[in-house]
Amino acid sequence: MNLKTILIGFITGFINGIFGSGGGTVLVPSLNNILKIEEHKSHATTLSIIIFFTITSSFIYIKNNIYDLNITYKVAIGSTIGGVIGAKLLNKFSGKKLRLLFGIFMILASLRMVF
What we know:
Layout: H1 3-19, H2 23-33, H3 39-63, H4 69-89, H5 95-114
Helix pairs in contact: 1-2, 1-3, 2-3
């Protein structure tokens, strides 16, 4: 482990803890640009990393009673199906196209948050 990887983890965990999401929007570009990990591997690795800080943050949200378990179960059904389909489609895109699609998604998500 080196300081770069720990710092990337700290920043993404911190962002996820405050905003409840967003770790992936920092983590994917960090793995690509700072750690020089290939695009497809960055996306797949990000999901595995997010599990750890999502579980940690979720326990704190549950403890502080700011968690809706009913909504969680309902959304989890659709997200599980979507996750399977998305994971299977990941290798259908070139690294360049994947980067472009992810960038467009990040821009649209940012605009949605601002407006």
